[in-house]
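User: Predict the complex with iron/sulfur cluster.
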Amino acid sequence: RIAWVAARKGTLPAEQRIVLRRVGLINPDDIEEYILHDGYSALGKVLTEMTPTEVIEEIKKSGLRGRGGAGFPTGVKWSFVAREKSEKKFIICNADESEPGTFKDRIILEGDPHSIIEAMAIAGYAVGADEGYIYVRGEYLLAQERLRRAIEQAREMGFLGKNIFGTNFNFDIHIHTGAGAYICGEETALIESIEGKRGQPRSRPPFPTTHGLWGKPTVVNNVETLANVPPILLNGADWYRRFGTPSSPGTKVYTILGNVNVTGVIEVPMGITLREVINIYAKGMKGGAAFKLAQTGGSSGSLIPASLQDTPMDFDSYAKAGVALGSGALLICDENTCVVDLVKVLMNFFRKESCGKCNPCRIGTQRAYEIMCAIAEGRGKIEDLDHLLWLSDNMYLLSNCGLGQTAGTPIKDMLKHFRAEVEAHITLQVCPAGVCKIKAFA
Ligand code: NAI
Ligand code: SF4
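Assistant: Here is the predicted structure with iron/sulfur cluster placed in the model:
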């Protein structure tokens, strides 16, 4: 059942495709092709051969961790919802993929929409929910169209609706589309948005597992996380644990961008290194330039310097090295990239996407952007660097949600790994990469 598919026939080594195993092989608009490729067999197996507790235990045993960025254990999350005594529970698929440079979920939704429907139904059975929502990014029009068609087909074939597989299990799914706000990918802002309110994060705790949609216990899982569920239940947790590392089993879908020869999407085992991604899958740096840094997980990820190129890419190894794996974007930058310019762009993104609910984030991201502009234009002062760190610490400690808490991460990484380059902008009025238009040299 594992498809070993060469990403580009004969030119790249085989990827390890679990999540993407059907993408590009089947017609996503045809439910029969999905069924021919094991589709809905995991749901059938679960409903007819396993109890909800057994399903959760198998997912726990597999070690599956959330692929949206945070790596929370999926089986544990499901067990939190399953133990709640509530007449109503929900499953939400977070498909509001908005992290810059991340388009892995889009590929899954467009190429294999039924896998998400099947996984959500399994999650519903496991935790006792009969209703699900897929919150799809507003710009993902093709994904929305394919999901709508897939839901209709699944209803017609009896995989959604009442008495699925002749059992007393009922489950149905709605689609809710986003409207361009990055913050609606934060799970509680997403829930507010479905409820028809302004998309602003709630305070956590309580977590959605106890107080989610309409105040009811809710599972919120990322698209890629859910796409792992049917193959785990078909093949077993032990099979899944053969891939990846002991603490981060399975594969990871990455989007590769930047100054490399081959960009695109790959699915590889957790634990391979950045150097392997660049040299093997991206076929090296463009024009033979030197690698400078990679940015993981879009704007809320980390800046990975060359010294961490050989760190295994899994949740724990990265955390131990003080960096975050994030959502799966790998923006690879060469020596001609200016770190000041890069962080300035990221701060601009955060200040625009901050929902404005809390001061540390709303004001902190704006101030950080202004300081980065000053440094990039040669107006910076050396004491600005301490101010930037102070802002980052305060945003981390005092912000209400992940956006504000992680907005300062690129600043901290910049000053930890590239301080001399930043100082050159201030003290020498020079942009070593030749990117910033410093006024003294303009
Ligand atoms: P988090 O670590 O606070 O939570 C992760 C998940 O575990 C959530 O679903 C949360 O409800 C659950 N959880 C954590 N502790 C819990 C507890 N005690 N009881 C019950 N449930 C619990 O991370 P957060 O803030 O939800 O997400 C941050 C991540 O999102 C970052 O890693 C970032 O990279 C990623 N992200 C991804 C984007 C994308 O486009 N894929 C966009 C923006 C951010
Ligand atoms: Fe809004 Fe930022 Fe506060 Fe999050 S941290 S609630 S995005 S203002």
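Residues 183, 200-201, 354-358, 361-362, 399-401, 403-404 surround iron/sulfur cluster (ligand 2) (CB under 6 Å).
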